[in-house]
UniProtKB/TrEMBL annotation:
<comment type="similarity">
    <text>Belongs to the bacterial solute-binding protein 1 family.</text>
</comment>
<feature type="signal peptide">
    <location>
        <begin position="1"/>
        <end position="24"/>
    </location>
</feature>
<keyword id="KW-0732">Signal</keyword>
<dbReference type="Pfam" id="PF13416">
    <property type="entry name" value="SBP_bac_8"/>
</dbReference>
<dbReference type="InterPro" id="IPR050490">
    <property type="entry name" value="Bact_solute-bd_prot1"/>
</dbReference>
<protein>
    <submittedName>
        <fullName>Alpha-glucoside transport system substrate-binding protein</fullName>
    </submittedName>
</protein>
<keyword id="KW-0813">Transport</keyword>
<dbReference type="InterPro" id="IPR006059">
    <property type="entry name" value="SBP"/>
</dbReference>
Length: 458
């Protein structure tokens, strides 16, 4: 995930560490360097070592990994490497940094690149490929990705027709959180279509309740949750081809189809009958921190909150996240068709040399073996789009639901659009203008036109 996306997720984890630990059951062990610990050992994990024999004798070699994945999410990563290390004798040396995006570019330019980096943004991958420092993925990795991932994921790891980086972890954004007991008590059913969701919202409003609660506050990154709303609706109303054209600026940012999509979002977020349950009026969305925005569901002040799967970490300690628990989530329904598109993000594994040990480790990370090992040593909040992942190995029912979405052969997946756009748009003008759209009731057409005018010249 990008710096901003990682900030979203870290804030969520920090805000809900209690519930995360309740769901996880037992904590990860303490280790140093690349060695695993009690978590991996207790799970009695093993893999087939045969795929790594073709890389030769790797005993005593090291592979350095540089990533934005830091404490507390780093330990499951380290633990997941243990079976590979035991198979090959390779020592995986892990380094996580909160300044990853900026420092990686500096290290590459100074000739001090790591062996492998987990790239959270396809745009950053393209930038690094442009330096000539990234090497294409080996044939073993290509074979794994062709077998275990939807083709769209391979596209995001490809630059100018060459495949460089296999997908790693993933996150699903197209969820609506709700209280199963509140729905049951009121006689509400989970909507299966957009029209059903709007009808449910009207029903709740007519009964005197507020159907939605929302918040886009996030410090310097205020506005990003609104970008996810817009991207999700563009994907549903205009379709994946138009979504791609919009993200790549092959159509204007203020194309009529995008105006229609933002107006659909406004039909919820700017509707005073719908929002902002337990938090204030429409304008309160702009000042409400995203991590707090769904909490009114717990006291019945609102009924629905759209946010990614990682929001599970924001519920207070003791909150049961389950289909029959205190809170759960359903996929944001489709506007057209029967299958809901999936908006998400993730990381990609890029290598800066083609040493056998590095290629062997790339192969492991792109395998179904690694995905299942990682699931077993992780707590809630981690999932992969690898179709070889057994969803039963995931701890959280929300993560299981996300994995099922990723593995649905009929579902359309698209990467977070703002993460694919130039930084001055996706992490700049779009955040600012959507905040103005909420806080100051700036008209939809003017918002999108101002973003269009801010798009950098080619």
């Amino acid at each position: 995930m990008t710096m901003r996306a990682r900030g979203r997720r870290n804030a969520a984890l920090a805000g809900g560490l209690g519930v995360a630990m309740v769901l996880a059951g037992c904590g990860a062990s303490e280790t140093s360097g690349g060695g695993g610990g009690d978590t991996a050992d207790a799970a009695d994990l093993s893999i087939d070592c045969a795929p790594y024999e073709e890389f030769g004798d790797l005993e005593g070699q090291t592979v350095s990994v540089y990533t934005s994945i830091v404490d507390p999410e780093d330990q499951p990563q380290i633990d997941s490497y243990v079976p590979f290390e035991e198979c090959t004798g390779v020592d995986v040396q892990y380094e996580g940094s909160r300044e990853f995006e900026a420092q990686l570019v500096v290290r590459v330019q100074s000739g001090n690149a790591p062996d492998i980096a987990f790239i959270p943004q396809p745009g950053l991958l393209a930038t690094l490929v442009g330096t000539g420092a990234v090497v294409p993925a080996p044939e073993q990795v290509v074979a794994n990705v062709d077998e275990y991932w939807d083709e769209s994921w391979k596209t995001y790891g490809t630059v100018d027709g060459t495949f460089y980086a296999a997908p790693l972890g993933a996150n699903a954004k197209s969820f609506v959180w709700y209280s199963p007991s509140a729905f049951e008590d009121a006689g509400y059913e989970v909507p299966q279509t957009w029209d059903e969701m709007v009808a449910l919202s009207d029903q709740i409003a007519e009964s005197g309740g507020k159907p939605w609660c929302a918040g886009i506050g996030s410090g310097d990154a205020t506005g990003w949750p609104a970008t996810d709303w817009l991207e999700d609706v563009v994907l549903r109303s205009a379709g994946p081809e138009v979504y791609d054209q919009w993200v790549n600026h092959e159509i204007p940012f203020n194309d009529p189809q995008i105006v229609e999509a933002l107006d659909l979002v406004g039909g919820i977020l700017k509707n005073p009958d719908y929002v902002n349950g337990g938090l204030g009026e429409v304008q309160s969305i702009a000042s409400t921190e995203f991590g707090d925005a769904g909490l009114p569901i717990l006291d019945g002040s609102c009924f629905m909150h759209r946010q990614a799967s990682f929001y599970q970490a924001n519920w207070p300690e003791g909150t049961e996240v389950a289909e029959d628990g205190d809170v759960f989530a359903f996929p944001l329904p489709p506007i057209e068709g029967e299958s809901a598109p999936v908006l998400g993000g993730g990381e990609f594994t890029a290598a800066f040399n083609d040493e056998p040990a590095v290629q062997a480790f790339q192969t492991y990370l792109s395998s179904a073996d690694w995905a299942n090992v990682k699931a077993q040593v992780s707590g809630p909040g981690w999932v992969s789009a690898n179709t070889g992942l057994d969803v039963e190995n995931l701890v959280s029912p929300i993560d299981q639901l996300a994995a099922e979405q990723f593995q649905d052969p009929n579902a359309v997946f698209r990467f977070d659009g703002s993460d694919l756009m130039p930084g001055e748009i996706g992490a700049g003008a779009l955040w600012t203008e959507l905040t103005n759209w909420i806080a100051n009731d700036k008209p939809t057409q003017q918002v999108l036109t101002d973003v269009e005018n801010a798009w950098p010249a080619a």
